């Protein structure tokens, strides 16, 4: 379980996070929702210790962030971090050299699944295919937790469907996933849990099936209630 | 297998309903093997946890059974199968009745139109298939 406990963060005088708390379980897909600038990416950066926080605590499986916890988790940012002149094959090799948890078999499986060719240069890929390579680099690591920042933004509907399909497969099963998005429609059926953020605080945290079952509401219904108050 | 889900009913409930329809119409036969929860999640594009929940519900309701490590199968219990069919018919009729009642149409008129439409529909479907 990833536990985010009352974290705060300022950028200069601007308070970006004002005491954010939520949990994300292993084996579940947790979705952080909020409009742009609400602090979604900052939260992910904080979980990865890529940005210092002012106060609060983040625990992974009950442990504080350390060198060890980073073996359990990976972050897929919204833009690919490989050098553009590399080919896909070279990027895979780079990951293999760098990470012990790299799973070559799974990487090959994902190449086939996304219909990507190893010899293609990253700089020559379409936006959708770049997003797929980016996702592949994260998914092929044998880690318990995956953080994905806006995996659906700016790509065509068929690529989106293909990426959504990953969430229904063994590639993600049994892992804990946190994804951020502001387009919930495509993935409403796929996610277990939703954390609604607004102006640096969590407005609501709920399980999607429970809200459908007990209140007969869709995720968008709940969002409308929360954000239009 | 393709199912269009609505957004306000629990997905697992919609999956169970889909299976009930398949059982009632005989598309899924008694004793027939069904996909694993992972396969189902992938086919229906749903969360594996949801598929798991649907199977648990169906197992508890006796719609499917699992022996040891072999794949789950559709029940062979005739009573359960016929009650599924009855349940679906009743549900549909109740929906229809609650939709038509506020319009205050005499029942004879409803039955007449119903018969006409019901047959029309059959023919239309046949035409499309030809």
TrEMBL record, chain A:
GO molecular function: ATP binding; ATP hydrolysis activity
Keyword Cell division assigned: no
Pfam family for this entry, one: ABC_tran
Domain ABC transporter: 2-224
Alphabetic keyword roster: ATP-binding, Nucleotide-binding, Transport
Protein's name in the database: ABC transporter ATP-binding protein
UniProtKB/TrEMBL annotation, chain B:
Residue stretches making up the HTH gntR-type domain: 9-77
Keyword line: DNA-binding, Transcription, Transcription regulation
CDD domains: WHTH_GntR
Any Pfam family matching the protein: GntR
A GO molecular function held by the record: DNA-binding transcription factor activity
InterPro entries: Tscrpt_reg_HTH_GntR, WH-like_DNA-bd_sf, WH_DNA-bd_sf
Protein name: GntR family transcriptional regulator
């Amino acid at each position: 379980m990833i536990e985010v406990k009352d974290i705060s963060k300022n950028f200069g005088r601007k308070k970006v996070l004002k005491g954010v708390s939520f949990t994300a379980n292993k084996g579940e897909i947790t979705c952080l929702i909020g409009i742009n600038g609400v602090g979604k990416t900052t939260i992910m950066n904080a979980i990865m210790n890529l940005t210092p926080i002012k106060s609060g605590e983040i625990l992974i499986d009950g442990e504080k962030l350390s060198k060890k916890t980073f073996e359990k988790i990976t972050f897929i940012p919204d833009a690919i971090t490989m050098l553009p002149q590399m080919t896909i094959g070279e990027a895979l090799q780079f990951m293999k050299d760098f990470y012990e948890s790299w799973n070559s078999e799974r990487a090959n499986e994902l190449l086939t699944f996304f219909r990507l060719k190893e010899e293609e240069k990253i700089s020559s890929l379409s936006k959708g295919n770049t997003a797929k390579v980016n996702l592949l680099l994260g998914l092929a690591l044998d880690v318990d937790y995956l953080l994905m920042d806006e995996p659906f933004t700016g790509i065509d509907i068929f690529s989106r469907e293909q990426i959504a399909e990953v969430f229904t497969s063994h590639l993600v099963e049994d892992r804990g996933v946190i994804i951020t998005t502001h387009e919930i429609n495509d993935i409403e059926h796929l996610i277990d849990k939703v954390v609604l953020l607004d102006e640096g605080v969590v407005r609501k945290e709920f399980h999607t099936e429970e809200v459908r079952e007990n209140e007969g509401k869709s995720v968008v219904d709940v969002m409308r209630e929360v954000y239009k108050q | 297998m393709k199912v269009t889900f609505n957004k306000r009913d629990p997905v697992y409930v919609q999956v169970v309903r889909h299976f009930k329809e398949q059982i009632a119409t005989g598309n899924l036969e008694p004793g027939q093997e069904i996909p694993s929860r992972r396969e189902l999640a992938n086919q229906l594009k749903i969360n594996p946890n949801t598929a798991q929940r649907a199977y648990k519900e169906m197992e508890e309701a006796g719609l499917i059974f699992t022996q040891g490590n072999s794949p789950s199968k559709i029940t062979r219990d005739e009573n359960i199968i016929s009650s599924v069919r009855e349940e679906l018919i009743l549900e549909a009729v109740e929906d229809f009745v609650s939709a038509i009642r506020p319009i205050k149409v005499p029942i004879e008129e409803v039955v007449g139109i119903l018969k006409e439409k019901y047959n029309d529909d059959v023919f239309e479907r046949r035409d499309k298939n030809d």
